[in-house]
Design a protein that fits this description.
The structure is a homodimer.
Chain A (H helix, E strand, L loop, with lengths): L1 H6 L5 H14 L3 E12 L2 E8 L9 E2 L1 E4 L6 H13 L5 E8 L10 E9 L14 E5 L10 H15 L16 H12 L5 H11 L2 E7 L9 E5 L1 H7 L9
Parallel strand pairs in A: 1-6
Antiparallel strand pairs in A: 1-2, 1-4, 2-3, 2-7, 5-6, 8-9
The structure holds a DNA duplex (30 and 30 nucleotides).
DNA sequence: GAATTAATGTGTTAGTTTTACACATTAATT
DNA sequence: AATTAATGTGTAAAACTAACACATTAATTC
């Protein structure tokens, strides 16, 4: 919705107006999906944004979204947006929250279901056709169009929490990664520094890393070992009980 | 939606048909809110359900819900449903997930935003006017109407997780409670037994319990002390960093 | 090829948290 | 007065977390 309306649809502004009148005149509720797409590059957490074309938000950045089609499931809509924008299917995607303030969208009542997605930038270099589509360092994400800042903040906080309880962060890394990569990822997402030895000890003790007996290539220093994540083992071991703590 | 449609609206079946044709004919998406309302009574976790009137789900139980009005925010719709059904305002309410499978509702495309609510049954004895509205022991909740079983399971799992990280469970207890009450609550929600000494130690060490210097009344054994929860202190201390663990 | 650089790889200790576990005390009831 | 059914309390072992330093390796520079 918001995002996508501004993006593709607005190139022919007719369709925006159509949506607007449709929504306003009939007092119907329109439904959209917005995706917060995270990537990891140069040891920085990035988010994929596109320029808003809506007059009200001219020049501002917004998330990627589109209206949900009548016969389309919500998750399917989110996957469609991802596929359209990144060319990637088979990516991590998770519904986060639904925003429905009456006045959140200038075109009328548009309720949006938001999704968080994690994609591996290096693996599949994505063809960013639209040159108004860019990766932004999350540290510089401010003042987005619509209520997208709120949506982004919400997703980012969720990511920070989830990454501590599940190995989803690995979706942002190549299949083979070094422990340094992994730590850089956690440090970027959690915006904190960690002790290298304790970080390693922690991950080794979880015992989900497979030593593939390869080394980093082309690093200007002693190369580190590469690992894969043992998803199979993780799925079996998944813990349920964590204990009361607040 | 689902629930509420079947509930109040269906008494005059006209309105259901109106919704149905509206949704089907125009291919529009209707939006509803469903609430999973938890209570705690006789040391059992309960959920508030109502009988479905829809032919397809005759005799089955369903969650409480209603369509979102054009000028109504999502949270407002959830609060409205709660107020209508329980007479309570000022209750704990949290959005959980949005379900939008194309065929989840027989009347057409209805996307529903689900909420989890925790209310204190003893404090405000609620006037259950509708005699098809009942508290169900969550252990006996199976085979709900629509996709409500899925929605319920989802909310319950969320509650189990959240209660370990936040003091929301206290919304299910009276303002003054004994440590035994508290432990019974956790045991009911998490469906587990805990060591009484360690449970006490844990809560005392968190240091959020206020000893109000009162004792239980009318118990057929040695009465325990009563406590209040120090929300003020909790709000100040809230922890952010938990650490990687999966 | 020797020296330098910048990273990897590894262990120990102190402190904290979690778990497992048993007995004296109290108020109500018989 | 005796019984019952709960409350209230402490300790020791085990597991986990946090803090902290030095030898090793490969690439690069001189």
């Amino acid at each position: 919705m918001p995002a996508e309306v501004n993006v593709e649809k607005v190139k022919n502004i007719k369709s925006l107006l159509a949506i607007q009148s449709e929504v306003e005149s009939s007092n119907k509720i329109a439904l959209s999906v917005d995706c917060v797409i995270f990537g990891f590059d140069e040891n920085k957490l990035k988010v994929l944004l596109i320029r808003s074309d809506l007059k009200k938000y001219l020049g501002k950045w917004s998330l990627l979204g589109d209206l949900v089609s009548p016969g389309e499931d919500l998750d399917a809509a989110a996957y469609r947006i991802l596929k359209q924008r990144t060319g990637l299917s088979d990516v991590y995607l998770e519904q986060v929250h639904t925003f429905g303030s009456v006045n959140r969208h200038p075109a009328g009542r548009v309720v949006t279901v938001t999704y968080c997605s994690l994609i591996n930038i290096q693996h599949h270099k994505l063809n960013i056709l639209d040159n108004e589509l860019h990766w932004h360092d999350i540290k510089n994400v401010t003042d987005l169009a619509f209520d997208h800042q709120q949506i982004f903040d919400n997703c980012y906080r969720r990511l920070q929490k989830r990454i501590q309880e599940h190995p989803l962060g690995l979706n942002l890394l190549p299949k083979k990664f070094s422990l340094r990569d992994l730590q850089n990822l956690y440090e970027a997402i959690l915006d904190t520094k960690m002790d290298r030895r304790n970080f390693r000890k922690k991950f080794f003790s979880m015992d989900f890393l497979i030593d593939i007996d390869e080394m980093e290539q082309d690093v200007p220093h002693r190369p580190g070992k590469l690992y894969k994540f043992n998803y199979e083992k993780y799925e079996k071991k998944k813990k349920k009980w964590v204990g009361i703590d607040f």
